[in-house]
Amino acid sequence: MPLFDQNICFYDYLKIPILILALLSWSTFYSQKEKNKATPFVTVYDLNGIKISKGRIAVLTDTSLVTGPREKPVTIEVTSIGSIKTKRSAGHNILMGAVIGTGTGAILGFATGGEGEWWGKGEGAGGFGFIFGAMGAGIGAITAIFKKTNTFSIDGDTIKWKAFREAIGEQSPLP
Questions:
Q1: What is the C-alpha to C-alpha distance for residues 107 and 87, in angstroms, rounded to an integer?
Q2: What is the Cα–Cα distance from 47 to 66, expressed in whole angstroms?
């Protein structure tokens, strides 16, 4: 039996190696790009301790803070800010772990379930999804323990506000 088929052009044998080389080169070139670092996520509380806003910092000025998504930014004056907490709550870690675990478990359970087995695809997806979801929530809770959140007490004071701006400015580039 010949090594090469006589009916296939030589260039057809080169398609796969060239495609693999192109994909590897693309990932190498893409990894050389500088990524924009996201601004920190903050939760802002008023002078009474009630949550006013939460979101990524859009703009920090001498007299105000702008947070939230780009579509609906919220401007908060320094005189009305009681405290600012960085990073998300522990519940966010737990929820994200549970969602990722449930999705992974459901796909795995669906893939391993069969008609001849004592469980079908649906039972496998539900069972594995539940187990992996609980494991993901547990991992999320563990990561929440080690999360380092900072709470900055502003109390409407411009001197404390300036210290907050300097501390945040060191952490991430702001526009």
A1: 31
A2: 17
The tokens for 74 are: 């919220």
How is residue 47 annotated by DSSP? T
Residue 168 burial (CB < 10 Å; 0-12/13-18/19+)? Answer: buried
108-164 pLDDT, tens per residue? 888 887 676 667 778 888 888 999 999 999 999 999 888 888 889 998 888 998 888
CA–CA dist 52, 71 (Å, integer): 17
Q: How long, in residues, is the chain?
A: 175
* Backbone torsions φ then ψ of 96, nearest 5 degrees: -65, -40
Put simply, whether the predicted model's pTM sits higher than 0.85 gets the answer no
